[in-house]
Structure formats: structure tokens, C-alpha cells
Amino acid sequence: MAFENESSMLHDALVSCKVPEIQSAVESARSAGMPANDIINELGSAMSDVGVMFERGKLFLPHVLSAANGMKKAMEVLGPELSADSGAGAAKGTVVMGTVEGDVHDIGKSICSTMLQCAGFEVHDLGRDVPTPKFVEEVKGGCNFCGMSALMTTTMTVQKTVIDELVKAGVRDGVTVMVGGAPVTQAYCDKIGADLYGESASETTRKASDLAAGA
Ligand code: B12
To answer: Which of 118, 133, 160, 187 is 20 to 30 Å from the Cα of 97, by its Cα?
Structure first.
């Protein structure tokens, strides 16, 4: 596998939860020529390992916050490098994106927003803990995709609530509803009547691009 050393260095730096180590691991991977997409995916999977260590009491909230901070700094550097020819042609479509009400996890959501933007979509990122009426209002204003992130079993139910509110507002049929986040699955997506499930940002971007191209 290419960039094996860089990948394990990135992983070790992220789970150390030390921002300077994460930044220097990202710098070395970049100067070794590792593509930005791969660096972000490596950090993303390491972040899930941080979650497991947090769950097992090996890491505590301040560690997780610091790792999250390191990840955000990496995204600031890598965001512009994400490989896509975003300049070419008209926008593929408009996307409203946000983390649902009651949930402050936004790293995964932000990676999706960045990758969709780089792939040529016009992305309106509403942030985290987005009130349900805000999603409805934005869809009423006109968009092709509505993406909702949820990272907790206690908040993933809000994705269904938003869909119900879109139906009540009579705007459900005009928009493609996308769902994702660590606890979300294809089966859950089908169960709540959403249109697209993305296990990762790259899968989300590929599926949305195919839909936008009418594939
Ligand atoms: C980082 C983190 C935090 C950080 C968040 C920082 C930030 N700005 O986001 C902080 C420290 C603030 C935090 C707080 C809390 N957390 Co937390 N957190 C995590 C952790 C470790 C990593 C999440 C992450 O960023 N993963 C990396 C990203 C890249 O992955 P991702 O989000 O899954 O995103 C990818 C895909 O899912 C997909 N995707 C994501 N969103 C979307 C959206 C769409 C539309 C699509 C198509 C695809 C898609 O693409 C992304 C990129 O590839 C997880 C552990 C885990 N395994 O998830 C726990 C975890 C989610 N947290 C948890 C908990 C309980 C909390 C707290 C309640 C703790 C507390 N007592 O205060 C609070 C929540 C408060 C609230 N109201 O939300 C639990 C949830 C348990 C449950 N019920 O399900 C977890 C699972 C940890 C654990 N195992 O206990 N947390």
C-alpha cells in the first residue's frame, strides 16, 4: 500500500490527540505527496478509533476535543487541496447540509460539505445543532439536496422528524434527502424514507454526483 508509513504516522498522531503532532504528521504526509483525500480519510478513521478509546475510558472528553481541534486544523490546510476540478462548468446542484438539532458533532459533516463543494456543488452549510424548522425553511427556499448528519443514537431520530416536517410542508418530493453519521446505516436510511446514505464523504460525493448527472 502506498504511503504506508505516512498513514500510520497520521493515525498515531491523531490518537495522541496532540494538535502539534497532528499538524506535523499532516505536513510530512503532504510533502511525501500523499493525496489530500487519503490524508483526510486516514484521519477520519483514526477519529473513530478515538471514539472507541473514549468509550472504553482510555481517553476523556478533553482528549477528544483536542483531537477534533487537530482534525479541524488539518481540514483548513487540506480543504483547498481536495482533488476536484471545481472550477469546471455550472454548479452540479445546491446542497443544504447540517448536523441535526441537539447534536454538536460537525467534523464528519464538514468533511462532506468540503468534498461536495470541491466536486462542484453549491453547499449551504447550516452548521451543527440546526433547529428542524431551519432545514424546512432552507428546503422551501429551493435546493436539490438536503443532507443531515447525526452522530448519536439519541439524535439520529431527528433525521426522521425533519423528513416528516418536509412532508407536512409539502416540499418533500422536490428534494433528495441524504443522511449519514457514525450510527446511521443504509437500512436506517431506507426505514426513515431518506433517499441517499453515505458511509463516508467520498461515497456521499460520488452518489450525489451520479444523481446530479442523472445516472
Ligand atoms: C469528536 C467527538 C466529539 C467532539 C465533537 C467535536 C466536533 N466539533 O464535532 C465533542 C468532544 C464535542 C463530543 C461531544 C459529545 N459526544 Co462525542 N464523539 C466524538 C467522536 C470521538 C468522533 C466523531 C467524529 O468526528 N468522527 C470522525 C468523522 C470523520 O466521522 P463521522 O462523523 O462518522 O463522519 C463520516 C461519515 O459518517 C459520513 N457522514 C457524516 N455526516 C454525514 C452526513 C451526511 C448527509 C452524509 C451523507 C454522510 C455523513 O461522512 C463523514 C466523513 O467520512 C465519536 C466517536 C464515534 N465513533 O463516532 C464520539 C461520540 C459520537 N460522542 C458521543 C457522546 C455521548 C458525546 C457527548 C454526549 C459526551 C458528553 N457527555 O458530553 C457530547 C455530545 C453533546 C451533543 N449535544 O452533541 C457518543 C455517542 C453515543 C450514542 N448515543 O450514540 C460517541 C459515539 C462516543 C462513544 N462511543 O460514547 N464528541
So the answer is: 187
